[in-house]
Amino acid sequence: MNAFEMITLSQGLNLSALFDRGQFMWCGILEVPLFQNFLVLWQDYVKRQTRFVSRKPANVIISTMEAVAGSMSLKVHRRDYKIRLEGISANKAGQFAVVLEVFEVAPSLFMVDARKAAGDTLEYHKFYKNFCAKLDNIIWKPSEGHG
């Protein structure tokens, strides 16, 4: 993860307007046609939607995610600040796995990045929405007017 990605994680700082130029997206000196622009923005949207920020200590974030995953009947494998959750896909046709990693982005501010490791993408997004709903007490939401 680079510094630009970390900056764009801030829910109060949306830099996309700096790059959107009508039907083209400026990437340094190069212009990317509309269709590719859409793909880039969609990928960015998906990335942003699978990250959240917390002001809780890292150990609280990790233990809460482990408890929620356990309540969802998922196997939990932990190493330092990375957790792998595994289970059977909803259609029982294969494996489903998600990797969650906790990063300290500033003192007392942590970002959790969730990535699909195995399984269907739609199922992953349904899982992520449900998972985050159960983590509501640790997810930081900036108050209106602070961004």
Automatic annotation (TrEMBL):
Q: Where is the NAF domain?
A: 1-20
Short name of one Pfam family for this protein?
NAF
Q: Which EC main class describes this enzyme?
A: transferase
Organism, as annotated = Quercus suber (Cork oak)
Query: Lipid biosynthesis: present as a keyword of the record?
Result: no
Please write the reaction equations for the catalytic activity of this protein. Answer: L-seryl-[protein] + ATP = O-phospho-L-seryl-[protein] + ADP + H(+); L-threonyl-[protein] + ATP = O-phospho-L-threonyl-[protein] + ADP + H(+)
The gene name reads: CIPK24_1
Which cofactors must be present for this protein to function?
Mn(2+)
According to its UniProt entry, the protein's GO biological process terms are:
signal transduction
The entry lists its GO molecular-function terms as:
ATP binding; protein serine/threonine kinase activity
Against InterPro entries, the record matches this protein to: NAF/FISL_domain, NAF_dom
EC numbers for this chain: 2.7.11.1
Which Gene3D superfamilies does this UniProt record tie to the protein?
Kinase associated domain 1, KA1
The UniProt family comment states: Belongs to the protein kinase superfamily. CAMK Ser/Thr protein kinase family. SNF1 subfamily.
Keywords from UniProt, A to Z, are:
ATP-binding, Kinase, Manganese, Nucleotide-binding, Serine/threonine-protein kinase, Transferase
What is the name of this protein? non-specific serine/threonine protein kinase
